[in-house]
Amino acid sequence: MERTALVTGASSGIGRATAALLVAHGYRVWGTSRSPETLAPEQRAAGVDYLALDLTSEESIEALADRLSGVDVLVNNAGESQSGPFEELPGDALRRLFQVNVLGPVRLAQLALPGMRERRRGRVVMVGSMLASFPLAYRSSYVATKAALKGFSDGARHECSPFGVWVTTVEPGSINTGISERRTRYVAADSPHRRDFETMLAALDRNERAGISADRVAQAVVKAIEAPRPKPLYAVGSNASLVFALRRVLPATVVEKMVHRRHDLTR
């Protein structure tokens, strides 16, 4: 039986690596990109058919309804990164981030789930971030979107599993995919937070350059897809097994200090 998967944001990073790995595992894979017709050959994963998707557009999302109704696997990977002091984040930028990182992926899952439920098989994987579990200053908007995505996943999981459909979250830590070059930044020239903000960004970029590869994350995604009963959460990179264990036994304030010290914020 042919297995089908749709991976969003499949022209770079985790999405492209996941799409390629699913092809290698025998899936028929559709990958999305904002403008598939402009993709260079090196941006395309071999064996993947590319579809247009703009997560800021309801029309673009709904245009995939027929395709999503027949897929066995949906990997909600596409998203944007954002940084800035909480009090200085523009409303328009926040609304866009929640549309791209939360509302768009949720709607795609809603379009895919009825078909999966009727066939009594399916997997929905939300690609989140370890920052949802370990929040960081000046990343509040991004943290909030990834926490929201995990919340939808955890809540829907119980609803879907009786029908053979499993919803799960994969949380990568620091990843070396060049995402730091595409991160939107909002900070006023005279911001009282500017010094700490720049310190955090420099550490964040440093950690990402030393981070794990997109291929490592793709392996975790495919592990979740092919598990008979996927776990609610798969964390990968940034010493995930150790830091999650520490979070279970240490006071929350200690964990908070550890996260901030890793990003050179010592106060």
List the helices and strands and how they pair.
Elements: E1 3-7, H1 13-24, E2 27-33, E3 48-52, H2 58-62, H3 65-68, E4 73-76, E5 82-83, H4 91-119, E6 122-127, H5 140-160, E7 165-172, E8 184-185, H6 194-209, H7 214-226, E9 233-236, H8 240-249, H9 252-262
Parallel strand pairs: 1-2, 1-4, 2-3, 4-6, 5-8, 6-7, 7-9
Q: How would you describe this structure in keywords?
A:
Short-chain dehydrogenase/reductase, 9 helices, Rossmann fold, 16% strand, 267 residues, alpha/beta, seven-stranded parallel beta sheet, globular, two-stranded parallel sheet, SDR_fam
Task: Give your account of this protein's structure.
With 267 residues, this protein is α/β, with parallel strands linked by helices. The protein has one domain (3-262): Rossmann fold. 45% of the residues lie in helices and 16% in strands. The chain has 9 helices and 9 strands. The chain has a 7-stranded parallel sheet, sandwiched between helices. A two-stranded parallel ribbon has the order 5-8. Strand 1, helix 1 and strand 2 (27-33) form a beta-alpha-beta unit. Helix 1 (13-24) packs across helix 7 (214-226) and helix 4 (91-119) packs parallel to helix 5. The longest helix is centred in the middle third of the chain and has 29 residues, at 91-119. The chain is globular. The mean pLDDT is 96.
In short:
GO terms for molecular function: oxidoreductase activity. The chain has 267 residues and is α/β, with parallel strands linked by helices.
At the third CATH level, what is the topology name? Answer: Rossmann fold
Poorly predicted regions: none
- What is the arithmetic mean of pLDDT? 96
Tell me the radius of gyration: 18 Å
Principal-axis shape equals globular
Tell me the CATH architecture.
3-Layer(aba) Sandwich
Strand order of the largest sheet: 3-2-1-4-6-7-9
Total number of beta strands:
9
**Oligomer state of the chains in this structure:** single chain
Domain count? 1
Protein name: Short-chain dehydrogenase/reductase
Organism: Couchioplanes caeruleus subsp. caeruleus
InterPro entries: NAD(P)-bd_dom_sf, Sc_DH/Rdtase_CS, SDR_fam
Pfam families: adh_short
